[in-house]
């Protein structure tokens, strides 16, 4: 493990049904949809490998066999599969199930993330900011100006110390969650059984003043629908 990294392991959340990406996901899981010449999940896996993250846990559910074969065929990062058949556990439940496979802390990221790093990799930036005594989770967030294809109202406000709070009703929040975070096992303590959203855990951490954000210095691409693929490819391939 690189001495600059807070963890040598990441979890990629890849078990979703990919409903927003239909019809491309009728016969393949969303992480295998190709963008700019390679599968969505390979964009994330390549970034992890470049940063020096050696191991990855990938949860699978929808069309799991194809996704499992794909990630296990890679040499780096070395993949382990967390199988969520027959019950899809959502983001929080997926992390809770995989927790015995994960060190403390660990990186977690969505399988459909595409980003261009700033001066340092996202994982090194998170590692430098990480403070286990103060944080249950450190979320990589991005201002609207650095979010390509995104047109929503945003997710979080951030105070001068970096602590996050939810978007206020009727307001635009200045920061968007990129789908990348550094997570302490403490965030997942007393997790409920079965399917649940990570939002439940984030809300508790926010109440305790232990949910922090880090503003991303690169470019982040929202690739949630088929319509977002072409502008993403044009931006990536056109520099």
How would you state the average pLDDT, rounded?
95
The CATH H-level superfamily is Spore Coat Polysaccharide Biosynthesis Protein SpsA, Chain A
Q: What would you call the structural class? A: alpha/beta
| Topology, number of strands | 14
**Cα distance, first to last residue?**
31 Å
The total tally of domains equals 1
> What form results from the Cα inertia axes?
globular
Element order, helices and strands? Answer: EEEHEHEHEEHEEEEEHEEH
What is the quaternary state of this protein? single chain
Please tell me about this protein's structure.
It is a single chain. The chain has 239 residues and is of the alpha/beta class. It has one domain: Alpha-Beta Complex (Spore Coat Polysaccharide Biosynthesis Protein SpsA, Chain A). It contains six helices and 14 strands. Strands 5-4-1-6-12-8-13 form a seven-stranded mixed beta sheet, with helices on both faces. It has a three-stranded mixed beta sheet with strand order 7-14-9. Strands 2-3 form a two-stranded antiparallel sheet. A hairpin with a 5-residue loop joins strand 10 and strand 11. Helix 3 packs across helix 5.
